Amino acid sequence: MNLTNADLSWVTLTYAAVERAQLSGANLSYANLHSSNLKGALLVAANLRHADLSFTLLNGADLTDADLRGANLRNADLTYAVLRRVLLEGAIRE
Asked: Which residues on neighbouring strands pair with residue 17, listed in sequence order?
C-alpha cells in the first residue's frame, strides 16, 4: 500500500493491517492507530504528532526523521524499528 505524503490526519485506523505500508512523508497527526499492524512500514519523515500508537506493532518499521512529539506509544512494539533523528518530546511510553 503506497500512501506516501498522504494527509491522514485525524484518521481512525484501529486494528488496521497495513504491514509494510509506504507512509513516508505522510501526515498522521492525531491519527488513532491503536492496535494496528505497521510491521516493516516506511514512516520516514512522517508526522505522527499526538497520534495514538498504543499497542501498535511497529516491528522493523523505519521511522527515520519522524515526528512523534506527544504521541502515545504505550505498549507499542518497536522491536528492530529504526529511530534515527526521531522527535520524541512529550511522547508517552510506559
From this structure: 37
